[in-house]
Amino acid sequence: MIIVMKQNAPLTVIEQLEQEMRDRGFQVDRSKGSSKVVLGLVGDTSALDERDFLSNPWVDKVMRVQEPYKRASRAFHPADTVVDVKGIKIGGKKLVVMAGPCSIETPEQIGGIAKAVKASGAAILRGGAFKPRTSPYSFQGLGEKGLDLLISAAHKENMPVVTELMSADKIGMFLEKGVDIIQIGARNMQNFDLLKAVGRLNVPVLLKRGMSATIEEWLMSAEYIMSEGNHNVILCERGIRTFEKATRNTLDLSAVEVVKERSHLPIIVDPSHATGHREMVPAMAMAAIAAGADGIMCEVHNDPEHAWCDGAESITPETFDDLMGRLKQLAPIVGREL
């Protein structure tokens, strides 16, 4: 249930109503729009009568939220959420590009790529230290050593980093080394214990859509994180599994608009994992921004033909630089900046 207060409702009235609801066993989330305050009640609200609230002269309207996700719902939080990562705003007018290799390989590799993508305009360095692979015999990443290389390269270029967390036992390491955005990969989208664990952190979380997940299931996973107190969630559409084999996955760009309609959370698109073919990445990145995404995440490798994993979907620094030039031309057309 949400309670919309009237414009300029006194803070004392709002706080009193919040306390009354907490005393009755409800969790209360307060969000402020351009002119009104919205209170979201979480709990069994079936016994509450909307008329009781409307007797308060400072209550404008009361609505029941039908969606199973509450905190992630736009009804609970009408204004767009903007996630701040070291001054980089994800979800605002400015588009954010995250770029880097699928996997960290050597100091020279990650260092050179970091320098190149930063020069082209990328805001955040991505890279995998712990890699979930379909085959247990495939390269699984360098682990802690790879994480150290990623952090070191990012510090040299003054860039925040995003990297994937596969299990809760590595959280201490991620916090100690200063990971700026924790990525929850597609295979872990419904690892509810892991979602609750990162929900208790004060670190932004990038939540990738599961390869067979509906949008509602995806938002419910975001709800798991937010229910533990961490509201800094960034959604990432990375393609879903269909019967089509021409691409690695089927990029669902319609999900961008659906998420924007149903949720206040920012959403970015990963055209690399979605298509699996480097020649498709620039076009799908452009399409994602045209569809309303708040940014993109793409894989960049200095030598894709010899990459230790996912070389087929990695673009070169030169291609990335060209893509950034095209995105800068597109951004003002769709009312954004880059």
TrEMBL record:
Keyword Nucleotidyltransferase attributed: no
A GO BP entry: aromatic amino acid family biosynthetic process
Domain of life: Bacteria
DAHP synthetase I/KDSA domain: residues covered: 82-327
Pfam families the record matches: DAHP_snth_FXD, DAHP_synth_1
InterPro entries in the record: Aldolase_TIM, Class-I_DAHP_synthase, DAHP1/KDSA, DAHP_snth_FXD, DAHP_syn_2
Sample GO molecular function, one term: aldehyde-lyase activity
Key words, A-Z: Transferase
SUPFAM superfamilies hit by this protein: Aldolase (SSF51569)
Keyword Hydrolase carried by entry: no
Limits of the DAHP synthase ferredoxin-like domain: 1-67
Name of the protein described by the UniProt record: Phospho-2-dehydro-3-deoxyheptonate aldolase
Origin species: Dialister succinatiphilus YIT 11850
Lineage of origin: Bacteria, Bacillati, Bacillota, Negativicutes, Veillonellales
